[in-house]
Design brief:
The chain is of the alpha+beta class. It has helices at about 5-20, 50-70; strands at about 20-25, 30, 35-40, 80, 90.
């Protein structure tokens, strides 16, 4: 239950924590990983869908598209899905 700004801040904090953590393999080697995160937010009374299941599917689809945009823009980043007027647009952080 966060607005876009707070959702992006939370996702970015998570991305930074994962990036800063070192994982130990079974061979006792330290490795680092990164994540690409897509964020989508529901704004009440702006969706054409009344069915909660359909709204959830749309949110998941938008977050997935934002995540793929993050990967396409170089990975290890957080991208916010912005509802398009004519074409999909995303905001990268």
């Amino acid at each position: 239950e966060s607005d876009q700004s707070h959702a992006m801040e939370a996702a970015e904090r998570l991305r930074q924590v994962v990036e800063s953590f070192s994982f130990c393999t079974s061979a006792k080697q330290s490795i680092k990983i990164t994540v690409s995160i897509g964020v989508a937010c529901y704004v009440p009374n702006t969706s054409a869908y009344a069915d909660k299941y359909v709204v959830l599917q749309e949110l998941m689809r938008h977050a997935d598209q934002a995540m793929y945009q993050a990967k396409a823009n170089g990975r290890n980043r957080t991208v916010l899905w912005i509802t398009p007027l004519n074409k999909p647009e995303v905001e990268t952080f």
